[in-house]
Amino acid sequence: MERPGSPTKIYFMLYIPCPHCGLRNETEFHYGAEAGIAYPDPYVLTDSEWAKYLHIRANPRGWFAERWVHFAGCGRWFNLWRNTITHEIGPAYLPFTTQPKVPGDTIAGQEDPRA
Ligand SMILES: [Zn+2]
């Protein structure tokens, strides 16, 4: 039962650390899917392997490396650790650089569906 005047939904705003511009409001960014997925040569893959590349991602519970673009700022792509359960933001880093260590533990028992 809800009390009169109580909010029915609570929204949280993420503050995302762009490596070029610093901490900014999430409305300035677009999500770009899982980080670190290399583009394969489509001519050497089977249809099944190509479909797997296009549609299957790890989607874990817990810390996850993601691609983001700061479309309302510098317009650059970068990678970011984000906890998919708590939305806690971890370190941001540039593509093709050394990935920082996972900020926390992932939930045990998660399997990589691409394996
Ligand atoms: Zn930026």
Task: Kindly describe this structure.
This protein is mostly beta strands. It has a domain at 15-93: Folate-binding fold. It is 8% helix and 28% strand. The protein contains one helix and six strands, in the order E-E-E-H-E-E-E. The strands form two sheets. A four-stranded antiparallel beta sheet has the order 3-4-5-6, with no helix packed on it. A two-stranded antiparallel ribbon has the order 1-2. A hairpin with a 5-residue loop joins strand 5 (77-83) and strand 6. It is globular. Residues 108-115 have low confidence and may be disordered. The structure holds zinc ion. Zinc ion (ZN) is lined by residues 18, 20-21, 70, 73-74, 76.
Helix-strand blueprint:
Layout: E1 15-18, E2 22-25, E3 30-34, H1 47-55, E4 63-69, E5 77-83, E6 89-93
Antiparallel strand pairs: 1-2, 3-4, 4-5, 5-6
The structure holds zinc ion (ZN).
What's the quick description here?
This protein is mainly beta and 115 residues long.
- Sheet with the most strands: spatial strand order: 3-4-5-6
- Whole-number average pLDDT? 85
Bound ligand species: zinc ion
CATH superfamily of the domain at 15-93: Folate-binding superfamily
Number of strands: 6
Identify low-pLDDT runs.
108-115
Rg (C-alpha, Å): 17 Å
CATH class of the domain at 15-93: Alpha Beta
Q: From the 3D coordinates, which CATH architecture of the domain at 15-93 would you assign?
A: 2-Layer Sandwich
CATH fold field value of the domain at 15-93: Folate-binding fold
- The count of helical stretches stands at 1
